[in-house]
Model the fold of this input.
Amino acid sequence: MSLDVSTPQQNPSSTADAAALANVRARVRRHRVTIYGLRALLLVAVLAFWEASVNLWFDPFFYSKPSLIWHKLVVWFSDGTAQGPIWQQIRYTLQEAVLGFILGAIVGILLGILLGRARLLAEVLQPYIQAANAVPRIVLSALFIIWFGLGMSSKVATAFVLVFFPVFFNAFQGAREVDRNLVNNARILGASRSQVLRSIVVPSATSWILASLHTAFGFALIGAIVGEYAGATHGVGLLISTAQASFDSAGIYAGMVISTVLALGAELILGLLERRLLKWRPPAHNNAVPV
Amino acid sequence: MSLVELSHATKRFLNSKGGTHTAVSDITLDVEAGEFVAVVGPTGCGKSTTLSLVSGLEPPSEGTVRVSGRPVTGIPEGVGYMFQADAMLPWRTVLANVAAGPVWRGVPAEQARAQAHDWIERVGLGGFEGYYMHQLSGGMRKRVALAQTLVTEPSILLMDEPFSALDVQTRALMQTELLDLWSGSRAAVIFVTHDLEEAIVLADRVVVMTASPARIKDVFPVHLPRPRNVEELRMDPDFVRTYSQIWSSLSSEVAIARKTGVGNVA
Done:
């Protein structure tokens, strides 16, 4: 038997190989430059079209345009907003989103795995869970303001209910779809029920859970911002609702830009975490480049 | 008293149409300590079910299964089971996979790692301790599975077509290594395969199963001297004689299985 190992390293044995390899590397680099270049071009084109069309045909008061939005952002970041310094608003929103996200993820993972392993309980609760999931949860933010007031806790609660369900369903599915073979093998090797849970069920469900966390942080931000929009003393959502009240469409866009940047930043961090936790996984797709 | 005693064991499963499907029927078989028994039968006839009865993963619907004289309820002590499909944990390295059994059984981590190291060397994977499963070839994964099972020093080793997915050369190599490792132990082996050559090369006794539902049709002793050379044995006249004798029993079952079609016997 050959002890072959599919590691991607190659040993260029001759200069011809080395030259071919350099050639391929250059091609890959060129390809990447092209992609980034086209992306930038697309963005510039869309923004330019927007700017031009508003200048020519539409009323910038209603539709706004990139230059006005940029100006608004500059004012917010240099002079602050009517509600106080912009960083303070961002900090509030992030704090609410992160708290809601962490609580929702923890409760969702725990309940999901528990129910995924307890068949009877899962069967009994199934219709109620489905119903709870069908409720338009974003509306709950109105109720939470009555319950918890205008402060941070009502936004954390909104973020929590938005995060909980996707994480819960994925953890539940992940815990149910554990390979029977792995469990049987572990039982034969002497694993107890709790060892099976810890060593097999939880790691198996991890890739499912991580997949849900990506979208869940976006939901947490939505929860925080919608909560603020419904009534708050601080936050990006408040900026948006204030902008709306004063017919400041550029302000609404500026708030959207800020929340988009926040979501992308969180996505980046979660991506790094995922790569760290799932380093055992084979590469998802074949990136081999023909030489 | 034999190490493994199956007495009139029958296993039925509910099928998707609400009826029952009999996987194995009326199995009576004794396996002694240190004996190597191969179970052959047409593909999909229910051979594997016999192993799950002995392992305690499935209780019999009728009849009794005893290991070391005690009726099987739960997983009996001293049983090792090598599954047909890979059952190692993909998120663990080779070392952590092999050490899993001892750790789960309460051996201190340091000692478990030392045992795992030892077995990884013995199956010829020294140097690959830190690799993950997806980085290994099919044959190497089988070696990990073998080490993972043998590190718990089972007195009964159940093997479910462990080498069926390997290419011919790798399979012969793994058979040789299995015989080497086994000869150093006093373990009883029940080895399920659909490959009659493999069965004869490895076993002291070959049990022929009928097409589904699987019953024991015949039992043939194999009088080939040990230690055996897996690759040369196939040309040996005694081997050929044994083969044709057993094949005359097995071939009609294979024909029946073919006629009923794979869809009905799974």
